[in-house]
Amino acid sequence: MEPALTWRDIGWISSICKIPVLLKGVLNPEDADRAAKEGVAGIIVSNHGARNLDTVPATVDALPQVADKVAGRIPVLVDGGIRRGTGVVKALALGANAVLIGRPYLYGLGVGGRDGVQRVIDILRNELEMTMGLLGRASIQAIDRSVLWS
Known about the structure:
By secondary structure, the protein is of the alpha/beta class. The protein has five helices and four strands, in the order αβαβαβαβα.
């Protein structure tokens, strides 16, 4: 939330960190391109739950253009709205390399602690595998935009 932070600062942070730097909150394809050029290890397509600016697009709407612009140069993760295995498949089909979940694991934690979190992960994995089977996709790499209805 620091308004004085610049792209030059992002490049500098990436150059001195001993751990990978991921840039979260990327919705604009041009920002994604710039992030890749500044040396970040990856980007997270996120609108922060649209809490900070309620007019931003849904992550699922921004994801395809961001992923296309990055064109595999850095990993693209997506955060927001993933609640089922079908949502994981959709995000992967739209160009995400991975998905992040927030509320589902928090719900599991609240209901059942560690076992609840494991149950949420198991449910998502089972739904993902079932969806892949129904789509005839044997691997994550085989998921592409052709699995989506237009």
